[in-house]
Amino acid sequence: MKIAIGSDHAGFELKEKIRSLVIRLGHEVQDMGCYSMESVDYPVQGCEVAKAVASGQYERGILICGTGIGMSIVANRISCIRAALCHDIFTARMSREHNDSNILCMGGRVIGPGLAEEITKIWLKTPFKGGRHERRICMIDSQDNC
Question: What is the set of active-site residues?
Answer without folding.
Answer: 65, 98
